[in-house]
Amino acid sequence: MSQVPVSRRRFLQGLGILAASGVAGWSLARPRLVNPCRAALPLGLSASPWLTGVWRDLNPADVWDCHAHLAGTGDGGSGIQVGPQLSSPLRPLQYAQRLFYMNAGCAHDAPGRVDASYVDRMLNLVEAMPAGVKLMLFAFDHFHDAEGQPLPEMSAFYVPDDYARQLAAAHPQAFEWVASIHPYRADAVDRLDAAVAQGAKAIKWLPAAQNMDPASPRCDAFYAALARHRLPLITHCGEEKAVQGADTQHYGNPLRLRRALEAGVRVVVAHCASMGQDEDLDRGGRVESFQLFARLMDEPAWQKLLAGDISAITLRNRDLEVIKTLLQRQDWHGRLLNGSDYPLPGILPLISPSALASGGLLPPEAVADLELLREHNPLYFDLALKRALSWQGQAFPARVFATRPHFEAHRS
Ligand SMILES: [Zn+2]
């Protein structure tokens, strides 16, 4: 295939490939696939009970969205690199995914200003919410080999720590930052110390895409340093579809995190491991990754160390039973943390309020307002949707959304 510029035709081809692959589980019959990227909220919407209800018992200054991705192309000097897996038309699935990410962040119509428009859009969305709400922006380290050498050609994408740090410094009213440091690097602990000194609020790993085995002794020095700093490690568990690394899916097995927990590390399991299956390393066989997350949550030894973030649990490729369990397990609620997985909530077909309503998890009368809200502000939409979810009378309590204390606790 020749190097043709990104065209609408190719974008739509990409959509077709994505849809055919069933990755996100949407139907092309839905009328609108592209986020219209509107900004201000329409007047009628601001009085919507589904919007005003968001702030019941909730101080906006405590609402730190603990799962937000930085994206871009590097055109603004961000240092972002998009690896061959995501940039090559020869890998159409990943290519289409990248275009979709960019569209969700509304950077698709900004040639030469993709990095900057992605950030502008996030600022825009945060500013439309009550003052105090912030996004925790994720850096993303390279894929590294077993010796701790970075392999850019194996990396799906790369977002430097410095970029996330600089954005948080430039926009302290809207952003906090989360470093991403591969534990096999020779300078991993030094980098961690520096990140903490520079205000990082957590470390983000995506083990399957970055080639890190959380159960490896190679992580021990890093774990000791994380425990010393009491800095949370937000790590992806369960199947990883948004980014494809090498054949390393098993690194996302929640049970592999026991090594970190035994070292005293505060761990946040991204998405509560709500997708995919893993080997049951205790009992044999393959089970839902979420079951293994649940087992860890129920192990008394980790009560003070282990938490889960509820980002992406509402995506259409998730099982509604997962949401029901998370709503019903009140004993877990003190350890659930809200995150949006931005830009995913901006990808219109990925979350279906009406499917959640038919599943009995959302009042049907909320659907129209939520869908309208999403067109204007996918971050606000994500928050309002999760505040409105309930099963058999049980909703997520406000403290699930008041995540700031969890990430500031490492300072004390
Ligand atoms: Zn994510």
Topology of helices and strands:
Elements: H1 8-21, H2 43-46, H3 49-52, E1 64-69, E2 81-82, H4 84-87, H5 92-104, H6 114-127, E3 134-138, E4 157-158, H7 161-170, E5 175-178, H8 188-197, E6 203-205, H9 207-210, H10 220-229, E7 233-236, H11 258-262, E8 267-270, E9 277-279, E10 286-288, H12 289-298, E11 306-309, H13 320-328, E12 336-337, H14 353-358, H15 367-376, H16 378-388, E13 390-391, E14 394-395, H17 404-408
Parallel strand pairs: 1-3, 3-5, 6-7, 7-8, 8-11, 11-12
Antiparallel strand pairs: 2-4, 9-10, 13-14
The protein binds zinc ion.
Features:
412 residues, alpha/beta, five-stranded parallel β-sheet, three-stranded parallel β-sheet, disordered N terminus, binds zinc ion
